[in-house]
Amino acid sequence: MLATTVTACGGDDGASAPKAPATIPELTKDPLTLSFIWFEWPPAQALEAFANAEYKKERPNTTIKVNTVPNANWHDAMFTQFAAHKTDFDIAILDSQHIGEAVTNGNILDLTDFVKKNIDVNAYNPYLLAAYGQFPQAETGKRDENASLYGLPLLGDTWTMIYRKDLIGDKPPQTWDEMISAAEKCQADNPGVSGLAFHQANGSDAAAVTYNTVNGVYGGNLWDAKSRKIDGVLNDAAGQEAMDVLVNKMKPLTAKGSGNWFIDEVNAAVAQGKACIAFNWIAASGGLLDPKQSTLGKTREEILGKLGFATLPTQKTNLVPLGGMGMHVSAYSSEANQAEALNFMKWFERADIQKKWAAAGGVPSRTDALQSPEFLNAGPFNQVYADSVPRMRDMWNVPEYARLVDIENTNVNAALNGAKAPKDALNDIAKEQQAVLNSSGRKGGGGL
Amino acid sequence: MSDPVSLTTDHPVQAASATPPAPGGSRRLSDRWLAVAFISPALLLLLAMSVFPLLWALYLSFTDYSATRGGSAHFVWFENYTAILTSAQVHLRALTTLIYVVGAVTLQTVLGFTIAYLISRRTHGRGLLTTLFLVPMMLSPVVVGLFWRFMLDAQFGVINSMLGSLGLGQVEWLTRQRTALFSLIVVDTWQWTPFIMLIALAGLTAVPKYLYEAASIDRASEWFRFRTITLPLVWPLLLIAVLFRAIEAFRLFDLVYILTSGGPGVSTETLSFHVYKVAFLGFNTGTASAYGILMVLIVIVLTQLYLRYLNKLKED
Fold it and tell me: Quick one: where's region Disordered (chain B) (predicted)?
């Protein structure tokens, strides 16, 4: 193993992870397969194709393999292997919220020294670098220069508002209230078309991200990170208003039976002309412009005549959800593969490669790549991403993340599907999540 | 040995069993070793794959061990068990599981027996019908789940399409509390009714014909024959099928995972699904082990009570 020393990173988190060397060790000349793990969606195939086409020019003996699992199994697939201290992947593509759990358990390498020596940190919006690599978690919009880095950005992402220009007009709604009014009118004017389509499923982080987005827009907070307080923060007046808007104003504008919709279902509704306004992750929106998958037009241009992509409307704040993922080196990979992984990351974060990645359909994180014509002209939603970067807010990045998100998912899903009153659901989320944070380090009976 | 058996070399087995063991190098012993040699691979596999994990889980259930946090396991003794048995979350999942087991197994038993009874009365096409009815049972539960997920889709599903053509409204099968658990029961019934049917059919074909002939001579009615001959003779076999199905239904995971993910909210989360979450979301391995052990204990206790009733039925 490259990693021999154990470092404690800032704060009292007791986080410990083996350190990656500052200098990339000598690379092998033997054939080598560098494996990633991600979930099944178009960017996974795009990454494999891009890396095999471009990285091979530098390292002909290396083959890139992106192993994918269904989104709902993504966290489990990675962390069960971490638990076994043996991984069949070298680079884990973690959601930003997974970092805390992986760092605390020592599953991924501390890249702080490597980044200092090999990566131009000034080339990034500091918050993006922090969101995809820093632990303890960064304050929204900021980066702590003294905190350790455990990953580097692979794919940036946020929500885009997808709207039917032919049904609600060319100008997208500017506020959340306007958006709801436009959706209401569109639904009334177009029988068979629902006003809204958004994520409501109780798997992965679907319903949770939806609530968090509305919560942010209405000025709410998910928690007070310093005091680790959720109960009384999440379910304050702003939080209650957000839940009320989501369940009582937005949900009635969705299609019947859409209570288990996630990325694919929302895309399907848009592509089949069944939704006036939809919200989805930018990185998953490429298929909407494919005439083979759409009933909105026979050409990309025809589809773009009907579909518009915009940044999320604002209300009391202009916050948008931070999506995307970073690359993290498995602590259980072989020395040769860890060295290759570090070399790949250094290569991938180069300015020219980031621009090529943008042109290939990826969403880069370097500022120069984000503002490059290669990126901005690659897709109609790329400008939306570039404009959204300063507005991003992440969820909690703590070792208990998986349980916190499950509590929120199930309760928001219950509220959206009439299994719980909205107010009760929000109070239950706050109470149960607080109990999870409070029981950290408790002996026995955890996880119920 | 009562009678001396004439031994020939044509009957080595007889010879082996009839010849007294030679002093010293016992042949019987070598046979025993041979038996041990044959059995030991399977036995070792069983020990490695079943017994050891069970004992290991039992040990972990008394600790605060977490698979991802690593470190040593500290004994918390019965704290995991107490937490599980007093948890309102667990009680809710237990109730969901109970409703599911009772609903699914009852429906499957009634349907399975009815189909078997109707098939057993046919003389032509019995084999073909039986084969056709068995198809759902041959499919993987994950595939079945995916099929039904599409079929039950509120927007594009064939079920709602048929209801629409009958002039009925759309039903949100998988996203409403009242219908989600019912949908799971229906899907499980579709897949596993053939299992009950198969066992019931075996029981029905084993009923001696002369009993029916005697009943016919006595001019007994169809209902009388069913009540006094068919049902009492098939009942014990049917109860064994019910036992198997109940154990399977109690452990339900795959259909829930595919069809509802436990939703809406947690209204279709079964005990197995909850154990999975405890084990793999928070990686609370100790708690999950205790949860698993408790589930095994419940199945064992209920099965014992059930088997006693079954034995009593046989004696009667």
Answer: 1-26
